[in-house]
Please model this.
Amino acid sequence: MKTLKLTLGQPDFPVTVTYYQPAAIADFDQPPRRPLVILLPGGGYQFYSDRENEIVALQYLAAGYAVAVVAYRLIDQPPVYPTALYQLTQIVTTFQRHAATYAIDAHRILLVGFSAGGHVAALYADLWPQLVQTCGLPATLGAIQAVVLAYPVIGLRLGWPTDAATRQAISGDWDLTEADQLVTSQNPPTFIWTTKTDELVPPQNAQDYVQALQRVGVPVRFHLYPHGPHALSLARPLTAFAAGADHDATFGERYVEPTVATWFADQLAWLRRLI
Model:
């Protein structure tokens, strides 16, 4: 595996990307062009969760994907929008234009977003044609082939955040924050999951987005699992909280849900049929 730290984007909104490239296989006469996962961890726009970062990237690497982890704009540099979307537009189009350099397939790029990162991904999926135009890029660039959303924030009116100050730090003067209201037939196929008992981001977020996609005929795979807290990540011991000063072992057990953990293999099978 090769790991690169890249700074992409324009001078006004640079963005750090950690790129994970699978090692070349000497037995192959022709090195394959890998599909690319652009991964957006959650963290409430305050930080990037390590439980949804490299540890998840490695799972995709093991499945044959290259992965680019995005350090999108946070609320410590308010507002988040529209900068986070301009950053993501530059990342998608840079990898498309330089696919050979990064040994990826420019026609097999997907976004994977967790929680707040899912909000960024969903908005990009809705708005990519106008984002490409606003950034002065060719209209032939910017399209993605799929989106995977895990317990995503979809609209700032749907239960998270609960305070006006945070909403303002996220949106500023940008009024295109309600992803379920911005869906068009140009949205890519979408895999989305959450739990009925998510205590932070209400499942209505995912449900409203699924309904919006279905209304315009976009293919959707949706899982609403019966149990589990917010931020389950892989829902396996690998991403469960360890015992420590802030919580004991029983707290971490809440983040191991075997029924939910099937989501990762399920979305890989869905992606194989799609791209």
